[in-house]
Design goal:
The protein is 34% helix and 20% strand. A 5-stranded parallel β-sheet has the order 5-4-1-6-7, with helices on both faces. It has a two-stranded antiparallel ribbon with strand order 2-3. Strand 6, helix 4 and strand 7 form a beta-alpha-beta unit.
């Protein structure tokens, strides 16, 4: 960018990368496909399905995005993949999601969950919320 004198103007900073947080337990639990028999394997299947969303984004949040899949309990032990960071909640997955949403600051933040109380908590922090169908198809 230049001003009318031809001197370089200040460089504008790129917009912040939006944050997409996935409530792993809630999304996995939204379809009764036997996930309860092996929670870690169900989390792996979800993680793998999420990879394309890191580049494309989802309805309501254009890509590329920083995508974080929050897992808890028996679903811990799932490795991250390029495009999908797996965050193991040390306790409550909902509490970890709230922490991540709070840390987003001014970045656009979208949380994928159907949990009503979690929705209330993250929207109070300025995050947007959408349901599991957004990433389940």
């Amino acid at each position: 960018m230049t001003d009318t004198t031809g001197a370089p103007g200040p460089a504008s900073a790129p917009p912040p990368v939006p944050l997409l947080i996935i409530d792993g337990a809630n999304v996995v639990g939204s379809v009764p496909d036997g996930w309860w028999r092996d929670r870690r394997a169900a989390a792996v299947r979800l993680r793998d399905r999420l990879v394309p969303y890191a580049r494309s984004g989802v309805a309501g949040l254009s890509g590329p995005v920083e995508l974080v899949l929050v897992v808890e309990g028996a679903a811990r032990g799932v490795a991250s993949l390029p495009g999908v960071r797996v965050d193991e909640a040390p306790g409550s997955g909902d509490d970890r999601i709230v922490e991540l949403a709070a840390a987003a600051g001014d970045r656009p933040c979208l949380v994928v969950t159907a949990d009503r109380e979690l929705r209330r908590r993250v929207t109070a922090l300025g995050a947007e919320v959408t349901g599991p169908r957004t990433v389940r198809g």
